[in-house]
Write a structure and sequence with these properties.
Blueprint: E1 2-8, H1 12-23, E2 28-32, E3 45-49, H2 50-58, E4 69-71, E5 73-78, E6 84-88, H3 89-92, E7 98-102, H4 103-119, E8 123-127, E9 130-136, E10 141-147, E11 150-161, E12 173-189, E13 196-202, E14 205-212, E15 215-222, H5 224-232, H6 235-246, E16 253-269, E17 273-274, E18 277-279, E19 285-286, H7 294-312, H8 319-345, H9 350-365, H10 367-379
Parallel strand pairs: 1-2, 1-11, 2-8, 5-13, 11-18
Antiparallel strand pairs: 3-7, 4-7, 5-6, 9-10, 10-11, 12-15, 12-16, 13-14, 14-15, 16-19, 17-18
The protein binds flavin-adenine dinucleotide.
Amino acid sequence: MDFDAAVIGGGPVGAATALELDAAGLSVLLLEAREARELPGDERPIALSYGSRLILERLGVWDRLHNATPIARIHISQRGRFGRAVFSADEAQLPALGYVVDYVTLASVLDSALAEAQTRGRLQARRGTRVLSIAHDPASAHIRFESPSGMDECYASVVAVADGNAEAAGVDVRVVEYDQTAISARVEADLPHGNTAFERFTPDGPLALLPCGSGYAVVWVGSPGSAEELCAAGPGPFLAALQAAFGDRAGRFTRVAARASHRIALRIAAHPTAGRAALIGNSAQALHPVAGQGLNLGLRDAWELASEIRKRGPTDPGLMQAYSARRRVDRFGGIGFTHGLVKIFSNDSSPLGLARGVGLTLLDNFPPAKDFVVRRMIFGARG
Ligand SMILES: Cc1cc2nc3c(=O)[nH]c(=O)nc-3n(C[C@H](O)[C@H](O)[C@H](O)COP(=O)(O)OP(=O)(O)OC[C@H]3O[C@@H](n4cnc5c(N)ncnc54)[C@H](O)[C@@H]3O)c2cc1C
């Protein structure tokens, strides 16, 4: 089997890449470990930036995300200290700053788009198929994989590795542990959310409330021990702890559902390319969930890799170098931004608390700085 392009991993980033390469007229093989019709067992909420909406529109899948909840405002504060900044879609002159969906809905919408693309002929998606290794020669990559029917192999001129952890690429990955765990959950409150998202920094970690349907999707970061306890606690104690951590700006929390815990680490592939393969999405960099940047950055990886392949062709010898150079600023911008936020905000230092308060107040009152931050959060460091 020979293909112009192989995509390893059919999560949101891999699926987006395969759709765009198919639209560019390339023969594409997508290999995904999940079985057909098996949904990811993970209901994490995803705040898609307005920039990601534009990418999903170009892929023809945005209109299928009927339940996406728009974010009109983002309110940023720190617990027990002064200072806040509010970003608004009106100020940014956009219809919304972003949209909240859940990972499972996004994955299934992309799965349906892949299934439709497959019926048109050029794209093949093989599910229940795990990639074991990739070997490179100057002109192509040799991929070995395992499926229920046994071992198999293929050749591709270019490979997009979107397996979420870079294992398939066999490259070195640097891991920075935060000693933090995120709890995701859905909660209802007795006040309407008015499409406002809250990011509240606490010494233990950030707490985000994202408007989602009639309530909020919560991403609450803390120490692994306390997160596991809160995940296992009854609804009453959980809601009381959330109320104590967040305060009453969103009203009284009345119900909780769909709690799950996620261990957090920063994982950075030493090089975003290897031979004929480009690492994209979480394979290239898995970020702390603060500020909801990981998938948005991954979708930009996907879009820009596909654009570079469109422009140069899949066999171009300079393709990987060009892709790597094109993504450097945005990639390190995303890593530095999220890691910096965690380091600056996840501590109880009084002088730093004061400096953060002054920083948030200045940001809130200086429109050019606000515009700079909003544009980078929405469109990335090249935006
Ligand atoms: C609690 C939490 C909240 C988050 N919130 C946000 C947010 O608000 N906004 C945001 O932008 N990001 C957010 N993120 C980050 C976001 O979830 C990830 O960045 C995103 O899921 C990465 O997508 P991906 O397609 O690169 O990888 P994944 O979603 O991990 O998909 C990888 C795919 O590859 C497949 N696979 C793995 N190994 C193989 C193999 N060997 N062969 C074949 N297939 C394989 C897997 O089955 C999977 O389908 C959050 C993360 C967490 C933990």
